[in-house]
Amino acid sequence: MRLVLCLVLAVSACAQTGEKPDAVASDRDRRADSVVTRPDVRADSLATTDLAVTLGEGTVGVRVHTAPITDPLGSPGFERFPLNALNLHDDEGTSVEAALDVIGRRGGRLVELVHTGERNVAFTVDGQTVRADPNRMFTPAGRARTLASLSQADAAAEAALAAFADSVLAVYAAVPPAVVVTLHNNTEANYSAASYAPGAEYADDAEAVTVHDGTDPDDFFFVTDRALYAALAARGFNAVLQDNAAATDDGSLSVWAAREGVPYVNVEAQHGHRAEQAAMIDALLDVLGDRR
């Protein structure tokens, strides 16, 4: 995957591992206001661009939201997009709304797939309609597995899905991210940080798990980098550290990132937890700022 390798080079300076249940579609009315957050930095007005990316014999919409930050002093090396995030499931609108809230205040960039309002993408190859989970398309094993489980897997469908994965990553990496950040939502008591606790369904995929007393385990970070895991957990957030050596190859971006040595963070929250997810994104930006 040549375009994927370009992303690795760009970020060389994180996506769940289990089969996440389908999420409930949410309101697609999204906005973010531009406000001054610090006297020397402001978020410019939000701009949105819609692209059509080829998948099989058709296309899938990829929407890019940008609100760069402006430094009045013109400081060299000033980072224009503090957040660069990717949303892969079109039924997980809370995560997009939360990200736009943060981008409106702090600046940033968000790339999201926009098609049917559903989790999976449907596309046509050789006259046949097939379906795939777009967070299971980043490895050969993952592509074969998701196609087989949702419709049918064959060489042509796998090749089309691989090309689509490359194209999505190319759009995302047009502004090289320091850390790959994805955004996801889950449903109550269906998938959470507790799913990775010892004896739980995905325990074998986790190297470490932190669930703080009195918190909602549905709201958590899933990361491939131990330092990021420790920093986020220390701030009081629930966190899961992927076992990069043993994680199941389901084709998710976290598995790909671990193999390529790319730092990865998934900001995962329950549907409707917009404020909570925005607070998580804010905390991640603070942690990433401390790393620079």
Please summarize what this structure is.
With 292 residues, the chain is an alpha/beta fold. It has helices at residues 2-10, 93-106, 140-150, 155-172, 226-234, 253-260, 274-291; strands at 36-38, 41-43, 47-55, 58-67, 69-70, 84-87, 108-114, 121-125, 128-132, 180-186, 206-210, 220-223, 238-242, 264-270.
Description:
This protein has a single domain, classed as Aminopeptidase (3-Layer(aba) Sandwich). It is α/β, with parallel strands linked by helices and 292 residues long. 30% of the residues lie in helices and 26% in strands. Mean pLDDT is 86; it is low at 1-41. It has seven helices and 14 strands. The strands form three sheets. A nine-stranded mixed sheet has the order 3-4-7-6-10-14-12-13-11, sandwiched between helices. Strands 1-2-5 form a three-stranded antiparallel sheet. Strands 8-9 form a two-stranded antiparallel ribbon. Helix 1 runs parallel beside helix 4 (155-172), helix 2 packs across helix 7 (274-291) and helix 3 packs across helix 4 (155-172).
How does the SSE layout of this entry go?
Elements: H1 2-10, E1 36-38, E2 41-43, E3 47-55, E4 58-67, E5 69-70, E6 84-87, H2 93-106, E7 108-114, E8 121-125, E9 128-132, H3 140-150, H4 155-172, E10 180-186, E11 206-210, E12 220-223, H5 226-234, E13 238-242, H6 253-260, E14 264-270, H7 274-291
Parallel strand pairs: 6-7, 6-10, 10-14, 12-13
Antiparallel strand pairs: 1-2, 2-5, 3-4, 4-7, 8-9, 11-13, 12-14
